[in-house]
Design brief:
The protein is an alpha/beta fold. It has eleven helices and 18 strands.
Length: about 400
């Protein structure tokens, strides 16, 4: 068959009988990428032919870790992204996690060092890891320093010459890339999540805060929380956004954005190593962000991890975590669609757990919410101090009844 085939969706490609070895490139018809929202991009048919080229593919935990390249309309250059397709993606649409990496990183750092694929395979989650900046744009000075230019796009839309043509990583991550992923892979578009590390943690926070409802959850490792007040951020924002308009800087600062956030409730998770060599010098400033969240009544959990630094050893340790002290936290970073609905009947509590394809054993502790006009109660006040559900014996929607 021809090397390039025009397709509309991932499903259409599979019905054409195209195996892994049959093609390396596929295209679709699409809209002008400078004029769309992320919601619209999932339903529109494309006008301009664009290509995605497979660079590599490796089997991993019965899924596939792939790398693709494409010509970006936002960054005006060739961009790469890594994508892990779990085995479940062969038969159904899956939730997707976007991972944003930090300074000096490429699309490969998270893919090769974090060890997330094992858990993504288990829970049926697609993981997308884009590059951290445009590459090869031939801009004077783009490769001169580790914290500005190549590998340091800071997830902003630059407004200053000579950066503004290519350095549009915010639009790329929140608009162009999701549209491309949604059009070509078996993604459940209503279940997107975002996370990142350091500069990428900053990116994850601002993307979630600036796009209410786009992401089901947001979390970060050692994020740059208040870039307008740290050396890394001041350097980047001065170069990309200009020194004169400091108000424009605030539109890419999570500590500023959370104070005016007005969207669906967020429950933000941050892990920060206490031995991080960038913490004491004031590059990360997590306390500033927590204070702003308190002021705006935004839920945030900051977990200070003893002895851990800024490296991927830290991230690999906590990329999968269970927190049995809360009711519904099972996998804060890579799992984000467990919700609890409780209906008050005269003598019964109906607790309904909605899952998306996982099959572990769930231990439920803590508070049960009894309804808008009833105070919370401990589970022990109903019947149990602990409820154990073996999901292998349950349907995807399971109802537990407890008498009071």
């Amino acid at each position: 068959m021809e090397e390039s085939t025009t397709l509309s969706t991932w499903e259409e490609s599979t019905t054409l009988g195209m195996g892994e070895a049959d093609y390396t490139e596929y295209t679709w018809e699409g809209v002008d990428y400078t004029k769309y929202t992320w919601e619209e991009s999932t339903t529109l048919n494309l006008k301009n032919k664009m290509a995605v080229t497979e660079v590599s593919s490796n089997k991993m935990f019965d899924g596939l870790q792939k790398v693709f390249s494409h010509e970006s309309t936002e960054c005006k250059c060739t961009m790469k992204f890594g994508i892990y397709l779990p085995p479940q993606a062969d038969s159904k649409k899956c939730p997707v996690l976007y991972w944003l990496s930090g300074l000096t990183c490429t699309d490969q750092n998270f893919v090769t060092k974090a060890g997330a694929q094992k858990y993504a395979a288990k829970h049926g989650i697609i993981v997308v890891a884009p590059d951290t900046s445009p590459r090869g744009c031939n801009i004077a000075g783009e490769d001169d320093s580790y914290d500005f230019g190549s590998g340091a796009g800071f997830y902003v839309n630059a407004t200053q010459d000579p950066w503004k043509t290519n350095y549009r990583m915010y639009a790329y991550v929140t608009q162009e890339l999701p549209a491309l992923i949604n059009s070509n892979f078996p993604v459940d578009v209503g279940k997107q999540s975002i996370s990142g590390h350091s500069m990428g943690g900053h990116g994850a926070l601002i993307c979630a805060l600036k796009n209410p409802g786009q992401y089901k959850s947001v979390s970060a490792f050692a994020p740059i929380c208040n870039p307008i007040n740290c050396p890394w951020g001041v350097k980047a924002f001065t170069g990309y956004l200009g020194e004169e308009d400091k108000e424009a800087w605030k539109e890419y600062d999570a500590t500023c954005l959370v104070k005016k956030y007005n969207g669906p409730p967020l429950d933000i998770l941050i892990d920060q190593g206490k031995a991080d060599n960038f913490l004491a010098p004031g590059q990360l400033l997590p306390d500033n962000f927590v204070a702003a969240c308190t002021e705006s009544k935004t839920q945030v959990t900051l977990r200070m991890q003893e002895g851990y630094d800024h490296s991927y050893y830290f991230m690999a340790t906590f990329i999968f975590c269970r927190d049995t002290t809360t009711v519904i936290t099972l996998w804060p970073r890579l799992y984000f669609d467990m919700t609890t609905v409780i209906t008050l009947w005269p003598r019964l509590y109906f607790v309904r757990f909605i899952f998306c394809g996982i099959r572990p054993q769930l231990l439920l502790y803590g508070h049960v919410y009894r309804g808008p006009h009833q105070p919370p109660c401990q589970i022990s006040e109903v019947i149990y101090t602990q409820i154990v559900i073996d999901l292998d014996d349950c349907s995807d929607q399971t109802v537990i009844q407890t008498m009071i």
